[in-house]
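sorry to bug you again but im stuck and you know this stuff better than me. what follows is a protein written twice so to speak, once as letters and once as C-alpha coordinates for the fold. mainly i need to know what kind of three dimensional shape the backbone takes. anything you notice is useful, everything is just below:
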Amino acid sequence: QVQLVESGGGLVQAGGSLRLSCAASRSIFSINIMGWYRQAPGKQRELVADITRSGSTNYADSVKGRFTISRDNAKNTVYLQMNSLKPEDTAVYYCNSNPPGARTSWGQGTQVTVSS
Protein backbone atom coordinates (compact mmCIF):
# COMPACT_ATOMS: atom_id res chain seq x y z
CA GLN A 1 0.00 0.00 0.00
CA VAL A 2 1.23 3.47 -0.89
CA GLN A 3 1.37 5.89 2.03
CA LEU A 4 0.92 9.58 1.28
CA VAL A 5 2.24 12.55 3.25
CA GLU A 6 1.05 16.06 2.47
CA SER A 7 3.01 19.20 3.33
CA GLY A 8 3.30 22.86 2.44
CA GLY A 9 0.15 24.29 3.96
CA GLY A 10 0.03 27.35 6.14
CA LEU A 11 -1.55 30.71 6.81
CA VAL A 12 -1.59 33.16 3.93
CA GLN A 13 -3.42 36.37 3.09
CA ALA A 14 -5.90 36.53 0.25
CA GLY A 15 -4.10 36.85 -3.06
CA GLY A 16 -1.09 34.92 -1.85
CA SER A 17 0.36 31.63 -3.03
CA LEU A 18 1.27 28.25 -1.59
CA ARG A 19 2.78 25.12 -3.06
CA LEU A 20 1.62 21.82 -1.61
CA SER A 21 3.59 18.60 -1.90
CA CYS A 22 2.44 15.01 -1.61
CA ALA A 23 5.21 12.50 -1.00
CA ALA A 24 4.45 8.85 -1.68
CA SER A 25 6.20 6.00 0.09
CA ARG A 26 6.67 4.07 -3.11
CA SER A 27 6.23 4.38 -6.85
CA ILE A 28 3.08 6.08 -8.11
CA PHE A 29 3.80 5.33 -11.73
CA SER A 30 1.23 2.52 -11.76
CA ILE A 31 -1.49 4.84 -10.41
CA ASN A 32 -3.12 6.36 -13.45
CA ILE A 33 -4.85 9.32 -11.78
CA MET A 34 -3.65 11.19 -8.70
CA GLY A 35 -5.68 14.00 -7.24
CA TRP A 36 -5.83 16.71 -4.63
CA TYR A 37 -8.90 16.89 -2.41
CA ARG A 38 -9.97 19.38 0.23
CA GLN A 39 -12.43 19.40 3.08
CA ALA A 40 -13.59 22.18 5.37
CA PRO A 41 -15.44 21.54 8.66
CA GLY A 42 -19.11 20.87 8.02
CA LYS A 43 -18.58 20.39 4.31
CA GLN A 44 -18.12 17.32 2.18
CA ARG A 45 -14.77 16.49 0.68
CA GLU A 46 -14.34 17.72 -2.86
CA LEU A 47 -11.92 16.91 -5.63
CA VAL A 48 -9.88 20.00 -6.44
CA ALA A 49 -7.73 18.72 -9.29
CA ASP A 50 -6.35 15.53 -10.72
CA ILE A 51 -3.66 14.44 -13.12
CA THR A 52 -3.02 11.33 -15.15
CA ARG A 53 0.24 9.45 -15.36
CA SER A 54 0.97 11.14 -18.67
CA GLY A 55 0.13 14.64 -17.45
CA SER A 56 -3.46 15.33 -18.48
CA THR A 57 -5.18 17.52 -15.89
CA ASN A 58 -8.66 18.40 -14.69
CA TYR A 59 -9.73 21.12 -12.28
CA ALA A 60 -12.78 22.01 -10.28
CA ASP A 61 -14.45 25.13 -11.62
CA SER A 62 -13.75 26.94 -8.36
CA VAL A 63 -9.97 26.71 -8.79
CA LYS A 64 -9.57 26.67 -12.56
CA GLY A 65 -7.04 29.24 -13.68
CA ARG A 66 -5.60 29.64 -10.19
CA PHE A 67 -4.30 26.18 -9.24
CA THR A 68 -1.90 23.92 -11.12
CA ILE A 69 -1.44 20.23 -10.38
CA SER A 70 1.69 18.38 -11.43
CA ARG A 71 3.38 15.08 -10.72
CA ASP A 72 6.93 13.82 -10.81
CA ASN A 73 6.73 10.06 -11.16
CA ALA A 74 10.48 9.67 -10.69
CA LYS A 75 10.29 11.49 -7.33
CA ASN A 76 7.00 9.82 -6.35
CA THR A 77 5.59 13.26 -5.63
CA VAL A 78 2.48 15.22 -6.59
CA TYR A 79 2.31 18.99 -6.31
CA LEU A 80 -0.39 21.62 -6.16
CA GLN A 81 0.61 25.19 -6.93
CA MET A 82 -2.04 27.53 -5.56
CA ASN A 83 -2.09 31.16 -6.67
CA SER A 84 -4.52 34.01 -6.05
CA LEU A 85 -5.79 32.29 -2.94
CA LYS A 86 -9.21 33.20 -1.59
CA PRO A 87 -10.71 32.75 1.88
CA GLU A 88 -13.03 30.09 0.46
CA ASP A 89 -9.95 27.99 -0.33
CA THR A 90 -9.48 27.45 3.41
CA ALA A 91 -9.57 23.70 4.08
CA VAL A 92 -7.50 20.66 4.87
CA TYR A 93 -5.94 19.44 1.65
CA TYR A 94 -5.30 15.77 0.93
CA CYS A 95 -3.85 13.85 -1.95
CA ASN A 96 -4.92 10.43 -3.10
CA SER A 97 -5.69 8.46 -6.20
CA ASN A 98 -8.85 9.25 -8.11
CA PRO A 99 -10.89 7.40 -7.17
CA PRO A 100 -9.44 6.46 -3.76
CA GLY A 101 -8.82 2.76 -3.56
CA ALA A 102 -6.90 -0.10 -2.03
CA ARG A 103 -3.49 0.86 -3.40
CA THR A 104 -3.22 4.09 -1.38
CA SER A 105 -4.09 5.34 2.09
CA TRP A 106 -5.19 8.80 3.19
CA GLY A 107 -2.51 10.94 4.80
CA GLN A 108 -2.90 13.47 7.58
CA GLY A 109 -3.59 16.31 5.19
CA THR A 110 -2.17 19.81 5.33
CA GLN A 111 -4.09 22.84 6.57
CA VAL A 112 -4.47 25.83 4.28
CA THR A 113 -5.91 28.96 5.86
CA VAL A 114 -6.50 32.07 3.78
CA SER A 115 -7.28 35.28 5.63
CA SER A 116 -9.19 38.18 4.13
